[in-house]
Design a protein that fits this description.
The protein is an alpha+beta fold. Helices cover 55% and strands 10% of the residues. It contains 28 helices and 15 strands. The chain has a 5-stranded antiparallel β-sheet with strand order 1-2-3-4-5. A hairpin with a 4-residue loop joins strand 3 and strand 4. It is globular, with a radius of gyration of 31 Å.
Length: 620
């Protein structure tokens, strides 16, 4: 089987916009789609997807590629694994022998061990040993479909059942230790980490098990009721949202994520139809989790318990979400309920009624700090200042001022108080701006990430292109019928001035056509800088070029040959102008009269050609 041909067949049948849109939230901007980059943290979308060229490119970190590259990078798969996944999706028959497979990397081995453990726990749930655990899940209202969807399981009350099972499956003790599936005591003895517990697998955004939450099934004062997997190469709890794999499509469809506190809360919310629900995986909500969530929506509802701990957690999460430019509503449940207990007691209709109320975060803060409390003037002032601290972190000035007006109206403040509030808010925002400037200055002095430096290097190479060179290459890379014109006009290569232009041209003429070039870009031997530069030029708006703006308005002359002619004439003209300037300097610096005469004759010939070009361009 020819892998190159099979790759081309798969790419032809996969729509990259649809593929990426199934995994992150992207929206149309002009002829392309943009969204927040899934490969680095950012707050402003710089990730661009081209439906015409069928590739993506991030202008922040420099990552770029086709559908196969995206699946490899995003899912952490090898080339063959990504090909298999997309072939199945596209309905392409893809078979290969062992000689064509790639060596399984460390991450794949860890993921395989976690998958084996998850299946082991799932199977044990339906054994005699797992009866109590199954009854526990049923008592929580988790039916078979929910158990299957969330891959719930049971860890046997044994020190070595999982350990022995992993060995039989070819998983070494060292690998099991790295996954957090077993532990090692001070004597070096190894045993199962999870024993006699209800198991809640924590999946990554591709549905792969990377960790576990575990609840003890019997009271034991010597053991914690809830434990989680430790941090591993696969699992960082500050970067994972429980239930996101099951919820991400519903989140994008509703443009809203509901965030709760516990595993059972998420599962019950899904059972009752609130399938856009996630939780923060046993930790306070983090900025990394919000960055992950922002791929799918910028609107969240914090649905926390109404007790003191829940209110404090809601405040912390609210401030962080506002700082990260999320639109946030807050709903705390009455009478000490959590989402699980509330839904099982009152049903989804009652929760819908609560969600449909005005749950603005301002209402939440007013209820928490001002309403139903007899406050002295000084205490009220402290409470108002505390609420202002939340408003001040909202990045957008217009949005911030709307929120201030909402607060003033709902708090019943008069005009004088509103003016004082505005002044105080401006002071708070000013302080935060100064802090941000200091932080930015500090970060700018730190060593830049490798990806960021790579992207900056590529952008600097592009800046070396002259206007005419840039316009020429963008035309070639954005029009599929241009390669024949290049081959018919070999003299073009004489008119490039910058080294990067000469390098680009030398690589372009190696390919028969436009399609072949873009297929070959992600081959291992293709220069990564040239690959990035080609994709960047393909997506950027063209620089202005002499006669180009005027020319493109002429509807009678929009065929590709005319456009190509204009660009090549401009290339030659720019080249000649540069050479004329060099000759002027040479004439000034040379003392020999014979040499001077040679330069002057060259100057005259080039000047005449420049006049011809100017005339030709004016007539087009």
């Amino acid at each position: 089987m020819n892998l190159r041909d099979k790759k081309a067949e798969i790419l032809q049948k996969i729509d990259i916009v649809q593929l990426i849109g199934e995994n992150i939230r992207i929206f149309r901007r002009g002829s392309n789609y943009v969204g927040l980059c899934p490969f680095h943290d950012e707050k402003t979308p710089s990730f661009t997807v081209s439906p015409d060229k069928q590739f993506y490119k991030c202008f922040g970190c420099g990552k770029s590629g086709d559908a196969i590259t995206f699946i490899m990078e995003y899912n952490g798969l090898s080339f063959i694994e990504a090909m298999k996944l997309l072939a199945n999706k596209a309905g392409v028959i893809f078979e290969f022998d062992k000689k064509e497979t790639e060596t399984t990397n460390k991450q794949s081995k860890l993921l395989n061990a976690m998958e084996i453990a998850t299946k082991f726990f799932e199977e044990n749930l339906f054994t005699t040993d797992g009866e109590n655990c199954l009854q526990y899940f049923k008592s929580r209202g988790f039916d078979d479909d929910i158990i299957k969807t969330f891959r719930l399981g049971y860890s046997p009350n044994s020190f070595n059942k999982l350990l022995n099972h992993l060995r039989k499956k070819g998983i070494s003790n060292q690998l099991a230790l790295e996954c957090g599936l077993i532990v090692q005591n001070e004597n070096g003895k190894e045993f199962d980490r999870f024993r006699n517990r209800a198991m809640f697998p924590i999946l990554d955004i591709f549905g792969r098990p990377i960790a576990f939450g575990a609840r003890l099934l019997e009271d034991d004062k010597n053991q914690a009721k809830y434990i989680n997997s430790p941090q591993t190469p696969l699992y960082d709890k500050s970067r994972v949202l429980y239930g996101l794999f099951q919820a991400k499509n519903a989140i994008m469809q509703n443009d809203l994520a509901i965030i709760t506190e516990g595993y059972a809360d998420v599962i019950t919310m899904h059972k009752f139809g609130f399938k856009n629900t996630v939780s923060s995986s046993g930790t306070a909500l983090t900025e990394q989790q919000l960055n992950l969530l922002s791929r799918y929506t910028k609107r969240i509802l914090l649905l926390f318990d109404g007790d003191e701990a829940g209110l404090k957690a809601a405040e912390r999460a609210l401030k962080l979400a506002l700082e990260n430019n999320f639109e946030v509503n807050v709903l705390t449940l009455p009478d000490g309920n959590d989402p699980d207990s509330f839904l099982n007691s009152f049903g989804n209709i009652e929760l819908i009624k609560l969600i449909d109320q005005d749950n603005s975060f301002i209402n939440f803060l007013i209820e928490l700090h001002l309403k139903n409390r007899k406050l002295s003037s000084s205490a009220k002032s402290i409470a108002i200042n505390r609420i202002l601290d939340f408003i001040a972190v909202v990045p957008d000035e217009l949005h911030r001022n709307f929120i201030l007006q909402e607060f003033a109206s709902k708090a019943g403040l008069d005009n004088i108080q509103i003016k004082l509030l505005q002044k105080k808010l401006d002071e708070l925002v000013g302080k935060k701006v100064v802090e941000q400037i200091i932080d930015y200055d500090r970060k700018s002095k730190e060593t830049k990430p490798e990806d960021q430096k790579f992207e900056e290097d590529c952008q600097n190479y592009i800046k070396q292109l002259t206007n005419a060179e840039y316009a020429f290459f963008r035309f070639i890379l954005t029009n599929s019928d241009t390669f024949d014109l290049i081959f018919k006009n070999k003299k073009i290569e004489n008119f490039f001035l910058s080294g990067i232009a000469k390098r680009l041209y030398a690589n372009l003429i190696l390919y028969k056509n436009h399609h072949q070039l873009f297929i070959e870009l992600d081959e291992p031997n293709f220069n990564p800088y040239l690959k990035n530069i080609i994709r960047t030029i393909s997506l950027q708006n063209p620089k202005s070029s002499e006669n180009w703006h005027k020319y493109t308005k002429n509807q009678l002359k929009t065929n590709i040959n005319y456009q190509f002619k204009v660009l090549t004439l401009n290339l030659e003209k720019e080249y000649i102008e540069t050479k004329l300037n060099q000759i002027i300097q040479d004439i000034k610096n040379v003392a020999n009269e014979a040499e001077k005469l040679t330069f002057m004759e060259r100057f005259k010939t080039l000047s005449e050609r420049k006049e011809e070009l100017t005339k030709l361009l004016s007539e087009i």
